[in-house]
Design brief:
With about 240 residues, this protein is of the alpha+beta class. The protein is about 50% helix and about 20% strand.
Length: about 240
């Protein structure tokens, strides 16, 4: 019975995955086809054709990011990924990530900061991906003059907080679902692929940890990562 239940769950997840993928791929493909059709309705200048090509490249980039994210999620869910824990300085790693995000933050007049420090046991590459996803997401939803801060609260707990627009309570239970976009539900044009927070949750699951979110509309959002306390440099297989 237990094996049958696992098989049914796997088939159900595969069905949802296929339905989500078909739905999300439809829009960029329709956009590409529509732009090409309009461009061919009459003769156009070289500059107009250039604009069509540039718009197409943006859609191709979005498709490439989506495919990369979906492949990552598929590997994580099918237990094809193993992580290598390393004991490293969380403060220094976060500072490197903030330096990488500084150009985007400066362009939006948003202040980045980090408080606290600790030795953290985690996969360094996946840790960088988690933090980069969360900071990029925070920058997207924080207005000019706002702040995004990363706090190292303990060797097992790190929080990313922003002073952005916040998320309504009804969206929070689904915010980590694949392709779910709170912005789209509120009538705001979506940005990105809707997979960033799903990847964050998958990475924390791979570590045997957890991720939680707290948010107040108009005040900001805080995402907290909790890593399990394990011996340094231990290899931790996915559950």
């Amino acid at each position: 019975d237990e094996m049958l239940a696992r098989l049914e769950d796997s088939f159900a997840r595969l069905a949802r995955f296929s339905a989500d993928l078909a739905h999300e791929l439809r829009t960029p493909i329709q956009n590409l086809r529509g732009e090409a059709d309009v461009a061919l309705t009459r003769a156009r200048t070289a500059e107009e054709y250039r604009e069509v090509i540039e718009l197409g490249i943006e859609e191709y980039d979005r498709l490439a990011r989506m495919i990369d994210s979906l492949l990552f999620l598929a590997r994580a869910e099918n237990a094809e990924m193993r992580i290598e824990r390393t004991d490293f300085d969380a403060g220094a790693a976060i500072d490197d990530i903030l330096d990488f995000c500084e150009a985007a933050a400066s362009e939006q007049s948003i202040t980045l900061s980090r408080t606290g420090d600790a030795r953290l046991s985690a996969d360094p590459a996946l840790f960088r991906r988690v933090l980069t996803n969360l900071i990029s997401n925070a920058l997207t939803h924080t207005p000019a003059g706002g702040r995004v801060s990363v706090s190292v609260r303990s060797p097992t707990e790190i929080a990313v907080a922003d002073t952005g627009r916040g998320i309504s309570p009804e969206h929070l239970p689904r915010i980590f679902d694949r392709f779910y976009r709170a912005d789209a539900a509120r009538g705001v044009p979506p940005d990105g692929t809707g997979l960033g927070l799903s990847i964050v949750r998958s990475i924390m699951d791979l570590h045997g940890g957890a991720v939680t979110i707290e948010s107040q509309p108009g005040e900001g959002t805080t995402v907290t990562l909790r890593f399990p306390a394990v011996s340094a440099s231990a290899e931790y297989p996915p559950p």
